[in-house]
Every structure is written in C-alpha cells, then in structure tokens.
C-alpha cells in the first residue's frame, strides 16, 4: 500500500490524528473492511506494520484506501 508522505518523510495525516482509528475501506463504494483502535498513539512504523499484517485482507478487497480517522493516508493504487 502506498502511503502519502511529506518531502521530509513524515506520514501525511498522522499529526493530530495519532489517537484516531486506522480504517481500511474499499476504494469503490467506501465500504469499511477493517478497523483498528490504537493502544498507544500511532506512529508511521506502527501503521506500516499494521497494514503489512493486513495484507491478506487488503488483497481480498483491492483497491483499498487507508484512513486515520477521516484523513486519507494512501491507497493500493499509489
């Protein structure tokens, strides 16, 4: 999954959303397919690891977009 980052390598959408749920949605139709609530504030590394562990779910619903709360973090289409 491609995640959108700033020129400094920061994950776009992470700042001020560290405590929001990480959500996977189908690109077409927007149906939610997975949701995780953080036990500690999200980091870029933690989000990448969670998405890696969800590879089977992601693969079964392509194309998929990742959101942190309402903020789009990226897509399998990037």
Secondary structure: helix percent: 10-25%
Structural class: alpha+beta
**Can you write the helix and strand succession as a string?**
EEEHHEE
Q: Kindly state the number of beta strands.
A: 5
Strand content: 25-35%
Number of helices: 2
Runs in which pLDDT lies below 50 for 5 or more consecutive residues are none
Major beta sheet summary: 5 strands, antiparallel
Q: Characterize the overall form.
A: globular
Average predicted local confidence, pLDDT = 90
Topology:
Layout: E1 2-3, E2 22-26, E3 32-36, H1 44-53, H2 55-60, E4 64-68, E5 71-75
Please name the defining characteristics of this protein.
single chain, 78 residues, alpha+beta, five-stranded antiparallel beta sheet, 2 helices, 5 strands, globular
Description:
This protein is an alpha+beta fold and 78 residues long. It contains two helices and five strands; from the N terminus they run βββααββ. A hairpin with a 5-residue loop joins β2 and β3. The model has no long low-confidence stretch (mean pLDDT 90). It has helices at 44-53, 55-60, and strands at residues 2-3, 22-26, 32-36, 64-68, 71-75.
Brief synopsis:
With 78 residues, the protein is an alpha+beta fold. The chain has 2 helices and 5 strands, in the order E-E-E-H-H-E-E.
